UniProtKB/TrEMBL annotation, chain A:
Annotated TM spans: 21-49, 82-103, 115-139, 145-163, 197-218, 271-292
Record's protein name: Phosphate transport system permease protein PstA
GO terms for biological process, alphabetical: phosphate ion transmembrane transport
The organism of origin for this protein: Cohnella terricola
Example of a GO cellular component annotation carried by this entry: plasma membrane
Record InterPro entries: MetI-like, MetI-like_sf, Phosphate_PstA
Membrane topology: Multi-pass membrane protein
Gene encoding the protein: pstA
Keywords: Cell membrane, Membrane, Transmembrane, Transmembrane helix, Transport
Superkingdom of source: Bacteria
TrEMBL record, chain B:
Primary residence: membrane
Location within or outside the cell: Cell membrane
GO biological process: phosphate ion transport
Protein name per the record: Phosphate transport system permease protein
From TrEMBL, chain C:
Any one of the GO CC terms: plasma membrane
Organism for this UniProt entry: Cohnella terricola
Classification via SUPFAM superfamilies: Periplasmic binding protein-like II
Membrane topology designation: Lipid-anchor
PBP domain segment(s): 30-264
Annotated function: Part of the ABC transporter complex PstSACB involved in phosphate import.
Protein name as catalogued: Phosphate-binding protein
Length: 298, 322, 283
């Protein structure tokens, strides 16, 4: 503040000119840099879609992968992606929501609870590969079930649990207090208040959170490589929880860097496009209704 | 008309009789209902507590597992060797992790060096310069970018960035710390700029008004008033980005070259903690020093990321005070 | 409700009958799951055999992946895999690797290895001495071995690779590899090696003959080309046996699979087509 004052006081016209120039330069620079970066990133994503999507065929999407010959598909990997996503959400959403509701609604305000909050936040920032190592220690070393879909899905759920907890806590806290008081005044129990008043009111935040963790689960690769392996059972619609569970994201990495198929480049182009497309679809499907709802409320 | 009048009393009558029944037999019933509700309420509360405890248990489970396995490294390797030796050849019993620790820090530093200035510029653009329509379009897009899988970024790095680097700089391979830092920059940029954007937008209007009233230009206002006022929020964003850069695995694995040698040049295949763990964990027996050393490296990563959360907490407390 | 019960019973009975019929109908009643991990050098063979085996035994599920030889016996020991493919006999001590207790080795193929270079490299032939110098970092420029003036990019397999062990013992006669440098890179699997050599100009690496594609060039060693004929007649020395490791004696399904891959029909048919060499051809 001081410097602004002193500058405006002394050498008024001259500094004004320099500042005016600086100001214009600055505006141009900010526009230029931001424009370049945003355009760059968006064009990269566009490039991925453009290189892959036009060449997609059903044979590729539901076809079996091939290790030697051309023309392998991504069917089982894509299936595993959705299957594991589903299992991990089934585990993570109830547990995460319950923990978040506890922190927002029931927890007393004391040292222990603020420590619990730090734990949740800490867990949310733990690198995903650590969950992979934990998954190995738990499922491969302790339970000795090897690299399986269930092991990968539960490790994924662990990864997403703290995020779900935090999102739930935040969105329930953001619900206006009057709503809660009104429900209590009508004689509702705490459970009824939460179910009938708080959760519907916090739905926007919850859906955004679920969308976030679903995207994360769908695109996660390090955890899956360590806990579910880099192979599929080689069959479509294999619901066996103890099959090896390579997902699409892992397959993209595997094909790009390890596989020996001659058409690895085209497979990975297409797999990347499918991966990106599904993530974008998640966001569009879940978020656009929320945006529209937001607009209406405003 | 007649029908209606005749119907009405009967309806009323039915209601009355229903009410009567429920009052007669209902005292016990309402009590049951109340009890049931209270029971559900209580049960729900316990389930919630159990879930919260479970989340904490996972953290402690992870800490315990990583520490218990990792600490066994020091049965065969002295901590001094592990932390400061650059010789990582497990087949010859030398377990110096310095290359990876250094690599992780160097990579994170380089990433922040590129990404922080760019992110702050984008944040300033979003919050101060851009017209409203562009702002409203860009914010959701940046949020979307946060959710793009890391393998996709790695794939881009491998197929587009590395050949480009090879052509532009004339190096032989292009793999290395610079390529990884550029990929990571693209990954953390949305995070840092969105958090900074929120922080800058939250700076009270009156600060800016005061600066303009004193004759400050927009440039002066932003650099001398707004950014300093949003400092702790921007720092929060930077730490979030840093956490992501340190923990990122697959995008880094695809472009860094995965060779255990010290990253003393921008273009030289090297390795970091995360990439080394994921590349080697499948090849090691459970009860070997090699495995323990990898877990120790995981434990290091864990400690670093937890320390950063403590840092964020301290920052927030400081921000709340001021 | 009764009709529902009887319906269920009927459905179950039908299912039972049809399943028995289908079992009888199929050529074999083998049923189970085999997980194979390990050597990427053996992967093409494993996959081919798995495809053929699955056709004959539709109820058997086989999933195979590869991440370097040492992963094979290691996964078998951890219980992740039923078969560990490895390029050396892991039931015995070999230089650099301790033996795996309680595992049984099954010889399945002869694997020829080749030194390969990027297509832009002008050199066609290297002597053992030149290979040693390149891979130990004494020679760093292609012009010193008869090529154009360009840095040599050495691509090496990471420790734990059977291809690396065999190449070091048989092509380099035990010379140590370099392990550092700006023009040095380690890769994890044969596929990785293939990508690296194909896409990096002036790169040299090594892999089994099966993986050599038209986008790279296999070198002659001491003037002898890496072909099956030269391996069989004993002039080309860079080859090794491929093994399947199992935890003790294999179970029924796994045993049937190993027997299939060792059968004369497979050894002289598909195995030869994939440029591997039947075990029986080597004396």
């Amino acid at each position: 503040m001081k410097s602004v004052v002193s500058e405006t006081r002394g050498m008024f016209t001259k500094s004004r000119g320099i500042n005016g120039f600086n100001n214009r330069l600055f505006t141009v620079l900010v526009w230029g840099i931001s424009g370049c970066i945003v355009l760059f990133i968006i064009s990269l994503l566009f490039l991925i879609l453009q290189k892959g999507l036009p060449y997609l065929t059903w044979d590729f999407i539901i076809g079996l992968p091939s290790e030697m010959e051309e023309g392998g598909g991504i069917g089982p990997a894509l299936f595993n992606s959705f299957y594991m996503l589903l299992i991990s959400l089934v585990v993570a959403i109830p547990l995460g929501m319950a923990a978040g509701i506890y922190l927002a609604e029931f927890a007393p305000n004391n040292k222990l609870i603020s420590f619990v909050r730090i734990c949740v936040e800490g867990l949310a920032s733990v690198p995903s590969i650590i969950f992979g190592l934990f998954g190995i220690a738990l499922f491969v070393e302790m339970f000795q079930i090897g690299l399986t879909i269930i092991g990968g899905a539960i490790s994924l759920a662990f990864l997403n649990l703290p995020v779900m907890t935090r999102v739930t806590e935040e969105s329930i806290r953001a619900v206006p207090g009057e709503l809660k008081q009104a429900s209590f005044a009508l004689g509702g129990t705490h459970l009824q208040t939460i179910r009938k008043a708080l959760i519907p009111a916090a739905l926007g935040g919850l859906v955004t959170g679920i969308c976030l963790i679903a995207g994360r689960a769908f695109g996660e690769s390090a955890v899956i490589i360590l806990t579910a392996g880099v192979t599929t059972s080689g069959e479509m619609w294999d619901f066996n929880l103890f099959s090896p569970g390579e997902t699409l994201a892992v397959h993209l990495w595997y094909v790009q860097s390890e596989a020996i198929v001659p058409d690895a480049v085209s497979i990975s182009d297409k797999a990347a496009a499918v991966l990106l497309f599904v993530i974008l679809l998640f966001n569009v499907l879940f978020r656009i209704p929320l945006w529209i709802k937001d607009r209406k409320n405003r | 008309m007649q029908l209606e009048t005749s119907a009405q009393p009967s309806i009323l009558g039915a209601k009355d009789s229903d009410l009567g029944v429920s009052i007669k037999a209902g005292s016990g019933k309402t009590f049951d209902r109340k009890n049931r509700l209270l029971f559900y309420n209580r049960f729900f509360r316990i389930a919630c507590i159990a879930s919260a405890v479970f989340v904490c248990l996972i953290l402690f489970g992870i800490l315990f597992f990583m520490f218990r396995t990792g600490i066994l490294t020091f049965r065969d390797v002295s901590p001094l060797t592990f932390f400061f030796s650059t010789e990582w050849s497990p087949e010859e019993e030398s377990y110096g992790a310095f290359v990876f620790i250094f690599g992780t820090f160097a990579l994170t530093f380089l990433t922040l060096l590129i990404s922080v200035p760019l992110s702050v510029v984008i944040a300033v653009f979003l919050s101060e310069v851009a017209p409203a329509w562009l702002r409203n379009a860009l914010r959701p897009i940046l949020d979307l970018l946060v959710g793009i899988p890391s393998v996709v970024y790695g794939f881009l790095g491998l197929t587009i960035l590395i050949p480009l680097l090879r052509d532009v700089t004339g190096t032989n391979m292009g793999d290395g710390i610079l390529a990884a830092a550029i990929v990571l920059t693209i990954m953390v940029l949305p995070t840092i700029s969105r958090v900074s954007d929120d922080a800058i937008s939250a700076v009270p209007r009156k600060y800016r008004d005061a600066s303009y009233a004193l004759g400050g230009t927009r440039f002066q206002t932003i650099f001398k008033v707004t950014i300093p006022a949003a400092r702790s929020g921007i720092l929060y964003g930077v730490i979030l980005g840093m956490a992501r850069a340190i923990g990122e695995t697959m995008a880094v694995v695809m472009v860094i070259g995965n060779t255990p040698q010290l990253a003393d040049a921008l273009f030289k295949p090297t390795s970091v903690l995360t990439s080394n763990i994921v590349m080697q964990i499948a090849n090691v027996p459970f009860d070997s020093t090699w495995n323990y050393a990898l877990y120790m490296m995981g434990f290091l990563l864990l400690v670093i990321s937890l320390l950063m959360i403590v840092l964020v907490r301290l920052l927030q407390r400081k921000g709340a005070k001021s | 409700m009764k009709w529902f019960k009887s319906l269920t019973v009927a459905a179950m009975a039908i299912a039972l009958v049809t399943s028995t019929v289908s079992v009888v109908g199929a050529a074999s009643s083998l049923k189970g799951k085999i997980v194979i991990n390990g050597s990427s050098a053996l992967l093409p063979l494993t996959l081919q055999a798995a495809n053929e085996f699955k056709k004959a035994n539709p109820k058997v599920k086989i999933s195979a992946s590869a991440a370097g030889s040492i992963t094979g016996p290691q996964s078998v020991r951890k219980g992740i895999a039923d078969i560990g493919a490895v390029d050396w006999d892991a039931s015995q001590d070999v230089p650099g690797f301790k033996k795996f207790e309680g595992q049984v080795a099954h010889k399945v193929a002869v694997i020829p290895f080749a030194a390969v270079v990027n297509k832009n490299v002008k050199v066609d032939n290297l002597t053992t001495k030149q290979l040693q110098d390149i891979f130990s970092g004494k020679v760093t420029n292609w012009k010193d071995v008869g090529g154009s003036d360009a840095d040599i990019i050495v691509v090496n397999r990471a420790f734990g690779s059977g291809t690396r062990v065999n190449f070091q013992m048989k092509a380099l006669q035990g010379t140590d590899f370099i392990s550092k440098g700006n023009n040095y890179k380690e890769v994890k699997s044969s596929g990785d090696m293939k990508t690296a050599v194909e896409t990096t100009p002036n790169a040299i690496g090594y892999m089994d003959l099966v993986y050599v594609t038209s986008n790279m060039k296999a070198l002659q060693i001491n003037g002898i080309a890496p072909t099956e004929a030269n391996v069989i007649n004993g002039t080309y020395k860079v080859w090794g046996f491929g093994y399947y490791m199992t935890k003790g004696q294999p179970d029924e399904v796994t045993k049937a699979f190993i027997e299939y891959i060792q059968s004369a029909k497979f050894q002289n048919g598909s195995l030869k087509k994939l440029k591997f060499i039947p075990i029986s051809a080597i004396k």
